[in-house]
Amino acid sequence: MQQQIRIGTRESQLALWQAHRVQDLLHAAGYSTVLVPIKSEGDIDLVTPLYEIGVQGIFTKTLDAALLSGRIDIAVHSLKDVPTQMPKNIVTAAVLERGPVKDLLVYKEDVRWMQQADYVAHIATSSTRRKAQWLRRFPQHQLHNLRGNVNTRLQKLNSEPWNGAIFAAAGLERIGLRPANAVELDWMLPAPAQGAVVAVCREDDKFSRQACTSFNHAPTRLCTHIERDFLRTLMGGCTTPISAYAYVATNNNIQFNGEVCSPDGTQTLTIARTAHATTAYDLGAAAAKILLEQGAADIVTLSRNAQ
């Protein structure tokens, strides 16, 4: 009988969508699988802001523990939630082809207030990156913490007297919950690896690693590596206002844009670089080193002290 691959996943609707996507890809390659839902610490505490929890790996460490203990064979994550330094003996098995990368504002009534310089809007998000970029553009607005899975956050938005809340487009679209009253924030640079899904496994599990090679998307893996290298080199984590986006442009060139911002949006360092895909592996680290020479470490430290 063929070996069955146990796929570990969080229990939210979005996490299950991601796990089912990996399951479908494995089935298409001829493998037998079973899903193993596991509740993470990040799903249990929906009140405390992420930056107060010590967010590094909060959505991944429970699955990592299940993986290392042999309870599951593969863990599926949103890649932006995965720490840049993975636990010992756990490796990336595959990065799926990337989905939408942008952020959306889900609003109530209308967004005419975005054109009014003196209007004080109330916007909800738990992301320090989104808060920083929003305050840089709208310094008079009030930001509110918003935790929970996609469904919970949409319900919370409806029940609170807020003007809107910020979501990742991928999260809403993948589970069919993008409302008509949503506008893409094309000026907001995404989190490193936003929109990407990763499957990880034990380093010594050759069977699972081989199984996942069938759906690894090399361009997405390269681009998200560049973004995460930028984050790692800046010594930032999920709670630091660091943004990065790399994509394949013309002639197989990789276009990279990165940014580090203070929590209140008043200090920003940005960088844009291009390299051919064959030489772009270290593009993110190189860009980060340039920003460090320009004082990025001080902004990162400011962000940590603010938390």
UniProtKB/TrEMBL annotation:
Gene3D superfamilies: Periplasmic binding protein-like II (3.40.190.10), Porphobilinogen deaminase, C-terminal domain (3.30.160.40). It comes from the Bacteria. It holds the Pfam family Porphobil_deamC. It catalyses: 4 porphobilinogen + H2O = hydroxymethylbilane + 4 NH4(+). Pathway: Porphyrin-containing compound metabolism; protoporphyrin-IX biosynthesis; coproporphyrinogen-III from 5-aminolevulinate: step 2/4. Its cofactor is dipyrromethane. Keywords: Porphyrin biosynthesis, Transferase. GO terms for biological process: heme biosynthetic process. PANTHER family: PORPHOBILINOGEN DEAMINASE. This is Hydroxymethylbilane synthase. It comes from Chitinophaga costaii. The lineage of its organism: Bacteria, Pseudomonadati, Bacteroidota, Chitinophagia, Chitinophagales.
